[in-house]
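Action item from last week, closing it out:
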Amino acid sequence: MRKVDSFKIETRLERHNRTVTKRVCDYTRAVNAGDTNADCRSPWARGRGAHTGDGRIYIDVDSDGEGGKWHTLVDSAPLS
């Protein structure tokens, strides 16, 4: 049974509210198959100062007639 038309995770590593690296992972097939093992790590960036991590999830539920929507995740505490 198809659950979603689209399910994506975007992760970002930021410094001073500017994106340093990001990654978007498409888990549509995995969600529809019932696989709950999602791992979408953004690439590392070396540098001085505090970095923060954040991301968002895109979900388009199958046959709900509403289309997809991005859901923002809360920023992490600064990483050093």
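Closing note: The radius of gyration is 15 Å.
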